[in-house]
Amino acid sequence: MNKIMVLLLILIASSAFAAETKEVRFMCDNKEHYPSYLEDSDIMDWRKPGAGVECLKMLESKLGIKVKIERAPWKRVLDAELKNGAIDGAFSVSYRKEREVLGAYPMKDGKVDKSRCLHTDAYYFYKLKKSDFSWNGKTVSNLKGVVGTPTGYSVVEDLRKQGITVEESNSSLTDLKKLAAGKVGAVAALELTADMLLKKHPELNKVIVKVTPPIASREYYVMLSNQFVNSNPALAEKIWNAIGEMRIKEFPKLVKEKYLH
User: Fold this and answer.
1) DSSP readout, 113-175?
2) How far is it, in rounded angstroms, from Cα 101 to Cα 89?
3) Whose CA is closest to 203, among 179, 170, 187?
4) What integer is the mean pLDDT of 135-156?
5) What is the mean pLDDT of residues 213-241?
6) Which segment of 65-69, 124-128, 193-197 scores lowest on mean pLDDT?
7) Which of 213, 70, 75, 66 is nearest to 139 (CA)?
8) Contact 147, 137 (CB under 8 A)
């Protein structure tokens, strides 16, 4: 076999491999969920997109797939795009039993597999420093008005089950600004996101304080559409396994070296 023939065979094989490279389409919120993805935007800033986004892009080299990531309003991401199989996966999603009809979580022995989450975070109340609002881990006291929190976040139902009136918004930054203006009595927000926002907005940090203990701790997962899992069961498990490994190695390293500044 001459050199030209060998080269042609290599090119044909390479083309066939490229043609078979599977594209996996993910979607995340268009509001910031620090440090998984940053900024309130419909467009991803690839110069500094967030630790979660960077980890998902690493799946390309780890699994030999093509990863596409888009942004949209969170309720649409879960209730429309993921549920209907228009996308292959969504992140970062906390576990709720009722969300299992929307897509699939990594599971083990019939339960969600916490070891294969992407990262963890916790919800806290935030109040005005001058406010008498308090939280003992079970009940709230001296709440004047409603609690603000973003639309579609899992803490909404937690609060409503306690009889707390919730006013949903388009972002935690909106909630914190409303709190500073006295339009809500308290805010329920993810700690990493809210703390970062207060750091970026000194005018808010001057008047707002975090209330301990946390409302609830959450693991955040990459959900895959039921349609994707049914068609690609082996690849789905590989994706979740790789994410579980990145939660321990790549994710915290990215946060420390790139996203704490």
Assistant:
1) -GGG-SEEEEEEEEEETT---EE-SS-EES--S-EEEETT-THHHHHHHTT--EEEES-HHHH
2) 14
3) 179
4) 94
5) 97
6) 193-197
7) 213
8) no
Contact (Cβ atoms closer than 8 angstroms) between residue 189 and residue 123 = yes
Beta strand extents in the chain (DSSP E only): 23-29, 66-72, 89-94, 107-108, 111-112, 119-128, 134-135, 140-141, 147-150, 166-169, 186-190, 208-224
- Domains located in the chain, CATH noted: 3-118+220-259 (3.40.190.10), 121-218 (3.40.190.10)
- Is residue 208 a contact partner of residue 179, using CB atoms and an 8 Å limit? yes
Using the Cα atoms of residue 253, residue 254, residue 260 and residue 261 in order, give the sign of their dihedral. positive
Unique residue bearing structure tokens 């955040």 = 220
Residue 40 identity (one-letter amino acid): D
Q: How many Cβ atoms sit within 10 Å of the Cβ of residue 171?
A: 20
**Other C-beta atoms within 10 Å of 56: how many?**
27
Question: Measured on CA atoms in the order 247, 251, 256, 260, is the torsion positive or negative?
Answer: negative
Comparing CA positions, the residue from 37, 34, 28, 20 lying closest to residue 88 is: 28
